[in-house]
Design goal:
62 residues, 3 helices, flat
Length: 62
């Protein structure tokens, strides 16, 4: 992961990512990119949930 990539992602945080209120947008961007890279490298490692375990759209209680 390059510093340029991290800085660009930090500058382009999504509204919901900004709303999370990170005190360190650069660290937040680095964590987002690391998670994204892991998911790309190993798509099978992504948690699988049954439909009855998934949250309904807009439900933030789960």
């Amino acid at each position: 992961m390059t510093d340029d990539r991290i800085e660009q992602r930090a500058a382009e945080l999504l509204p919901e990512e900004r709303a999370a209120g990170s005190a360190d947008p650069r660290a937040q961007a680095e964590a987002i990119l690391a998670d994204s890279d892991r998911r790309e490298d190993d798509p099978e490692a992504i948690e699988n949930r049954r439909s009855d375990q998934a949250a309904a759209p807009g439900d933030t209680t789960r």
